[in-house]
């Protein structure tokens, strides 16, 4: 089965291959690793399926079987491949630690967990919930990121560091959202059914922030690190504190794109 993006038309994949070849030229010890994970594959989809399968395989689900399932999802749902490319470019643009595309593709577990979730979400939509749940468990074990496969997540997403991130079953995340480690998009514990947050486009969620309940976080808003958000957040607002309250307005339409964590200059309602 052919993947969605032919290598000859795929700028992201071409750049990733070139970067891998350059690394091999500078660090020969990594040549076997880079050949196995990047250079021997024809498409980004094939490389990603192989890479993630090697990370998530277990005694009960071997590398070959898991790779085939992942590649099936990437091939049958072109939107996943589009999101992968958008996420990879988002990491490069927003995270100063990402010096090239190869670095996050090979080493950033926030990126790895997000792309693994995307396969799990495809399985969920295919009615293969038991396998999706198994994959969720493996993602949590390997990457320390727990995303329910039924959650709905847009593209252009950055999960920086990833450690401790939890995203609940009925959570919805828009496009171009950035979040840091230990963010929780969870329930209050008192609700059932649709019980998790709805995050708008361009939102920045700081490290350790907890957004709880079926509440809306408006487009272009910013949640300060360590905040506990229990109420609706208006569009283009900055909230901070425990419980969080509006403390100002971001100076840009989509705070997620700049990753500016400061809130003191936002105190200008």
List keywords for this structure.
269 residues; globular; alpha/beta; 2 domains
Please explain how this structure is put together.
- This protein is an alpha/beta fold and 269 residues long.
- The chain folds into 2 domains: 7-145, serine acetyltransferase, domain 1; 151-269, 3 Solenoid (UDP N-Acetylglucosamine Acyltransferase, domain 1).
- It contains 9 helices and 15 strands.
- The protein has helices at residues 11-26, 31-39, 44-56, 63-76, 78-94, 102-107, 109-125, 129-143, 255-258, and strands at 145-147, 152-153, 158-159, 165-167, 172-173, 178-179, 184-186, 198-199, 204-205, 210-212, 216-217, 222-223, 228-229, 238-240, 245-248.
Please specify the SSE layout and strand pairing.
Layout: H1 11-26, H2 31-39, H3 44-56, H4 63-76, H5 78-94, H6 102-107, H7 109-125, H8 129-143, E1 145-147, E2 152-153, E3 158-159, E4 165-167, E5 172-173, E6 178-179, E7 184-186, E8 198-199, E9 204-205, E10 210-212, E11 216-217, E12 222-223, E13 228-229, E14 238-240, E15 245-248, H9 255-258
Parallel strand pairs: 1-4, 2-5, 3-6, 4-7, 5-8, 6-9, 7-10, 8-11, 9-12, 10-13, 12-14
Antiparallel strand pairs: 14-15
Helix pairs in contact: 1-2, 3-4, 4-5, 4-7, 5-7, 7-8
